[in-house]
């Protein structure tokens, strides 16, 4: 087994464990190819922009991801953050380029909790005068 670099990425309720190794350009997410696991149009290029910003050749880098929890967007962003963190661990010189593109910042927005007396976090019941 080749030596790998591992990093964790999180977003909303999603957690992604990303492993990067030198290889032949295989990108798998939960044992499926990237394009199969994230079939939406812009998802795969958004994830791969971390490799491009770090100056890594995607054809020479194998990436294996285990992602769980949350929905499609949360999982996509978790994978993107985990990949960026792994690339910084591999090459500290890539930090500046990744930081400029905003790929190393964890998006801390999460669902707000429901409040008592309200229908959701902020939606109040309909007001009736009589």
What does this protein look like?
- This protein is of the alpha+beta class.
- The protein has one domain (5-100): Ribosomal Protein S5, domain 2.
- It is 31% helix and 22% strand.
- It has four helices and five strands; from the N terminus they run ββββααβαα.
- It has a five-stranded mixed sheet with strand order 1-2-5-3-4.
- Helix 2 runs parallel beside helix 3.
- The longest helix has 19 residues, at 72-90.
- It is elongated.
- 29% of the residues are buried.
- The model has no long low-confidence stretch (mean pLDDT 94).
How does the SSE layout of this entry go?
Blueprint lengths: L4 E7 L2 E9 L4 E3 L2 E2 H4 L5 H11 L7 E8 L3 H19 L4 H6 L30
Helix pairs in contact: 2-3
Largest sheet: 5 strands, mixed
Distance N to C terminus: 73 Å
Number of helices: 4
Q: What's the CATH topology label?
A: Ribosomal Protein S5, domain 2
Helix amount: 25-40%
What's the number of extended β-strand segments?
Answer: 5
* Rg value: 18 Å
Sheet with the most strands: spatial strand order: 1-2-5-3-4
In N-to-C order, the SSE pattern is: EEEEHHEHH
Query: What structural category characterises the helix and strand content?
Result: alpha+beta
Quaternary: single chain
CATH architecture classification: 2-Layer Sandwich
- Shape verdict: elongated
Beta-strand content:
15-25%
Unreliable stretches covering 5 or more consecutive residues:
none
Name the CATH class.
Alpha Beta
* Domain module tally: 1
Mean pLDDT: 94
